[in-house]
Automatic annotation (TrEMBL):
Organism ancestry: Bacteria, Bacillati, Actinomycetota, Actinomycetes, Kitasatosporales
GO cellular component, one term: plasma membrane
Membrane topology: Multi-pass membrane protein
Transmembrane residue ranges: 6-29, 41-69, 112-136, 148-171, 183-204
Naturally occurring in which organism (per UniProt): Streptomyces resistomycificus
Protein name, as recorded: Lysine transporter LysE
GO function term, MF aspect, one: amino acid transmembrane transporter activity
Membrane is among the record's keywords: yes
Length: 207
């Protein structure tokens, strides 16, 4: 069982991290802007599921093993950057203009997988889990693996609550703005620019 004093400190730190704008939040805003409320929400859900997968990997020691192999780290980093550039190109090339009350862009299933894959291919998330979560694990309490899961599930739910709300809001705003052909095109360019920036940021980040 987790140490309650450590868990309380973890919740405070996790909340601060969740509300601080970062790559995942920017990605979700861009997805909501491109695909509407459902896309924003499902992108946030995909990111949350990927975060929990990272937590399980950290609990099993797989993340530490992965980081001990620099080649795999860089392969994942470049794969993530390439995938984000692919999404950027799709956004820049999207010239469709939806009818009133609808939006173009990815469907719910695609938005989920794009959010999940983008997070899974980000080695910085692996570094975060390896460095952050162990600080709030109490080995003397036993069941270390279960403590990791409790912490991981907590930050996953908290992150989804924050990111999902932001995805919905950005999507609803974009649905209103997209009634204009010019604004719809501008939102696609904005999304593509965000994806490009995230790709360059990931590619330029050393281990």
């Amino acid at each position: 069982m987790v140490d309650m004093s450590l868990y309380a400190a973890f919740l405070v730190a996790a909340f601060a991290l969740c509300v601080t704008p970062g790559p995942d939040m920017m990605f979700i805003v861009a997805m909501g802007g491109r695909g509407g409320p459902a896309a924003g929400l499902m992108a946030a859900f995909g990111v949350a599921c990927a975060m929990f997968v990272h937590t399980v990997a950290a609990a099993l020691g797989l993340s530490a093993l992965f980081l001990a192999l620099p080649t795999l780290y860089h392969v994942l980093r470049w794969a993530g950057a390439a995938y984000l550039l692919y999404l950027a190109v799709k956004s820049f090339r999207d010239r469709s203009v939806p009818g009133e009350g609808s939006v173009s862009g990815p469907g719910m299933r695609r938005a989920f997988w794009q959010g999940a894959v983008t997070n899974l291919l980000n080695p910085k998330v692996i570094l975060f889990n390896v460095a952050f979560l162990p600080q709030f694990v109490a080995p003397e309490k036993g069941h270390v693996w279960e403590q990791f899961l409790v912490l991981g599930l907590s930050i996953t739910v908290m992150g989804f609550a924050v990111d999902g709300s932001i995805g919905l809001l950005s999507g609803k705003l974009s649905a209103l703005l997209r009634r204009s052909r010019r604004v719809a095109r501008g939102l696609n360019i904005f999304s593509g620019t965000v994806f490009t920036g995230l790709a360059l940021r990931l590619a330029a980040t050393p281990k």
